Amino acid sequence: MLKRIAAIVSTYFPISHADVAVTKLMKGIPTDDGLLSPRVELASLFIDQMHPQDVGHTLAFIHGVKVYQSIEHALTLGTGELAVDGVLLIGEHGDYPYNEIGQQLYPRRYFFEQICGVFGASGRSVPVFVDKGLSYCWEDALWMIKRAQALDVPLMAGSSIPVAWRRPMYDVEMGAQIDEAVVVGYGPLERYGFHLLESLQAMVERRRGGESGIKAVKYLGGDEVWRAAKAGEWSKELAEAACDAVNPEKKGAGSMEEESDPSDLHAFLLEYNDGLKATILLLNGYIREIAYAGRSGAKIDAMAFVTHDANPYCHFSYLLLNIEEMFLSGTPSYPVERTLLTTGTLDAAIRSRHEGSKRLETPHLEVTYAPPERIPWRPQNTAPTGATLDVWPPRRLRTGAGASGERKSS
Known about the structure:
Blueprint (H helix, E strand, L loop, with lengths): L2 E7 L7 H11 L1 E3 L2 E3 L3 E8 L8 H7 L3 E3 L2 H6 L9 E5 L17 H15 L5 E4 L6 H14 L3 E4 L6 E3 L12 E6 L3 H16 L9 E8 L1 H8 L5 H9 L11 H4 L5 E8 L4 E7 L6 E7 L2 E8 L8 H15 L7 H18 L5 E2 L49
Parallel strand pairs: 1-4, 1-6, 4-5, 6-7, 7-8, 10-13
Antiparallel strand pairs: 2-3, 9-15, 10-14, 11-12, 11-16, 12-13, 14-15
Helix pairs in contact: 4-5, 5-11, 6-11
């Protein structure tokens, strides 16, 4: 019998995070190795907000998944006690307000509180995955970690980008020295700033000594970004190396300075406790891909994270496979502390922006952890191939090679 999973989502419309993740548990998981049959069963669904283009209710009806009107009932299946083996929490998209510093108040902690309420009342817990950041603010994210620890909840969270394709196939060698790093990308400040931070963290956490945490964060915007480069606050050489790794079709023909939109240009300057310097650059108007560059001495390594930018957005397939792995094994595929750190760093960057680009010391971000030696599921190619390029939705479900869960080459 397959393990039963409850999906708790904010809203469910075409190409929402609910659609590109939960739908694969009903229709199959497209990968380079074929269309894989889910190894778990979607048993229930809770949708917080009805979108005008809702597809969640229709898909659930077609696939025999019951939609419940409360999180408690979705987890208990109406029995009064916990009746599922894992929970997929997606609090992304939806009509939620913003606070005074520009953070969208997604109800991830609120959902998690209710999930943990069922766990506490039932006297047992099951694994939970939280899509993207743990919360919009550090305090809620830390509460979630502590609540999970108190109830012995296997908890995992994060972005799909670290398990996307990489061009070239590159990973930081475990224990390598990194002196400075830059990640470039695009998109809205909060939503995509998180993706860039997770991309950075997935690389630099493998450096010598493991993760030591971040001691200070500073936000820069507009022309301040270029002035800071001239002052040596971040490395333009590394940024150019990262941009050189971007697909030419997703990059302007000119320079970063010429083509980035000054009204939508953002940078986070990060100072790590072990001396590593890192920069996040949102170069809207110039590039439409996420890329990394790191320096060790005089040596620079650079690569791009390649996403599948069409329905069904198959980089989420590899994230989902790692989530399934946790549901089956009870062990997260990578430490939740990574996402605790990135959640807190994004919160600090947005607060720095609100305070006029003030450098904020962040002793609370002394988050330490050991990175995983390997992640169970990663693409083996430098771009999507195989079933990821098939017409969606699939006409039939195939079991492809690689379904046993062995690691893909990185």
